[in-house]
Amino acid sequence: MSDMLNRIKRRNTRPTVERNTSLVQPTESAQAAEAISPAPAAAVPEELTPAPQPPAAILSRRGSANAPVQSAAAGATAIEAELAALPQISQRRNIRLEVDLEERLVNFCQENDITVETFLEACFVEAEQNTRFRTEMATEAKSRVKLRKQAGKLRRVLSQLRK
Amino acid sequence: MKILACLSLAGGQGKTTTATLLGKHLAAAGHTVLVVDGDPQSNLTTFLGHEVAQNEPTLLEVMKASVELEDAIYETSIQNLYLIPSDDGLDNAQEYLSTTGMGAMVLGKRLSKGEGTFDICLIDSPPQRSQICKSIIGAADRIVIPCESTVKGFGSLVRTLEAVNELKDLGASNAELIGVIPFRDRWVGANQTQESRSVIAAMREEVGESLVLPSIRESEKFKKAISQQATLAELGVPDLAYPFDVLVERIESMEAVAA
After folding, report:
1. Is B54's CB within 8 Å of A21's CB?
2. Which residue of chain A comes nearest to B66, CA vs CA?
3. Phi first, then psi: what are they for B52, rounded to 5°?
4. How far apart are alpha carbons A31 and B222 in whole angstroms?
5. How far is CA B140 from each of CA A152, B64, B90, B144, B170, rounded to the nearest angstrom?
């Protein structure tokens, strides 16, 4: 058996390596974070303007000015850890809304700078904590289910009549 | 050591299936085999039962020469079969290879240290015309092209042959085609489907009768053999292994292996 095979078979330790397996490069993440930070208002003097903040993960890794620059892989790991601490989002699902209500709902969300998804999440969280609210919402939702089922049945009958 | 690449520029052509089963066949025949997972999807790594830890050396570090070759070679549960694994991080090799200027030569140079230790090095390639793929073609002595018995498969064969010839014309590869394996050859009872028959005939026209190997039939047994880490013989279907038996014979007749 060759020497190399013997060494491979007997190997207990290997050199450790740093490898970035993320799709997004750490520098790209930092750039993206900066891109979405609020732009300074034109009227505010420059010295009072808050500088765009990089993610907390990067800030926490920054030492003194003389500290060695962290590697790109370590940056990605820290960002991944920060990301893991934030709420995980499920897979996309289609939601169909009542036409008349949809416009009012979208307007409401735009006025409050929220999305339909986060509105739905917030409603549910509130309902979990408020029994009266929860009951009223469930009653309203049940009547809507009933109406949708009725509409579905009518559409089915209509399509059979047209065949 | 002879270096053999399982190559195709399209997905689903049977590269990893061929590399996995051929590697096991060669090892069972008594050859010391090094299989290299050149695809960041790392299915070959998974199929050979290896799980890559975040800080373990892989093919990426071998390519970048940040570790010694043997640091990234792992024993598998199969006797005589060794693995250089990969993971998603292998994508980072693209940038390294494109900036070295001699990307097509890198992998061959790195693997040359296995000379004298391994009889055969078998490389699974990614399904893209990428820098990694070029480096695999550059490293290979022989190329086997698995090719699905469909129109898409035939298209990928033509495209793959063009890529190999392009690198050969540039002097960046000396690889010779050892064979084309028709993959997912469909039969209904005793009858081959029209599409499989006509596509395999087109393969013969393209590369010559002698270079089209016996086909890998469409069968769940191949998937089973791979996912259960068993051989086709162990699953009670040794006949399905015939394409690999023929390929092993061809590889054994190669000079450096026979010696």
Report:
1. yes
2. A17
3. -85, 125
4. 46
5. 62, 18, 19, 10, 15
The confidence score (pLDDT) of residue A50 equals: 47
The residue type at A4: M
Give all domains of chain B, ordered by start, each with its CATH number.
Answer: 2-258 (3.40.50.300)
Q: How far apart are CA A154 and CA B6, in angstroms?
A: 58
Question: What is the rounded distance in angstroms from the CA atom of residue B17 to the CA atom of residue B216?
Answer: 10
Phi/psi of residue B240, each to 5°?
-65, -15
Q: Provide, as residue numbers in chain B, all residues whose Cβ is less than 8 Å from the Cβ of A4.
A: 70, 73, 114, 116-117
Q: Where are the beta strands (DSSP E) in B52-110?
A: 74-75, 81-84
What is residue A68's predicted lDDT score, i.e. its pLDDT?
A: 47
Interface of A with B (CB under 8 A): 2-5, 7-9, 11, 14-23
Q: Are B133 and B94 within 8 A, CB to CB?
A: no
> For strand B81-84 and strand B74-75, is the pairing parallel, antiparallel, or unpaired?
antiparallel
Enumerate the β-bridge partners of residue B6.
B124, B144
- Rounded CA-CA distance B174/B190 in Å is 41
CA distance B57 to chain A (A): 6
Chain A residues within 8 A of B60 when measuring between CB atoms: 19
Whether complex ipTM tops 0.85 = no
* Tens digit of each residue's pLDDT (9 = 90 or more) over B136-172: 999 999 999 999 999 999 999 999 999 999 999 999 9
A137 contacts: CB under 8 Å, gap ≥ 6: A123, A127
Q: What pLDDT score does A14 carry?
A: 82
Which phi and psi angles does B10 have, rounded to 5°? -125, 160
Average pLDDT for B97-111: 88
Task: Annotate B153-190 with b (16+ C-beta within 10 A) or e (fewer).
Answer: bbebbeebbebbeebeeeebbebebbbbbbbbbbeeee
Among chain A residues, the shortest Cα distance to B90 is held by A21
Contact residues on chain A for B67, CB-CB shorter than 8 A: 14-15, 17
Instruction: Count, in order, helices (H) and strands (E) of chain B.
Output: 11, 10
Task: Inspect the interface and report whether the beta carbons of A17 and B56 lie closer than 8 Å.
Answer: yes
What tokens were used for B89? Answer: 């991080």
Answer whether residue A148 shows pLDDT above 80: yes
Q: How many helices and strands in chain A, by DSSP H and E?
A: 7, 0
Total beta-carbon pairs less than 8 A apart between chain A and chain B: 52
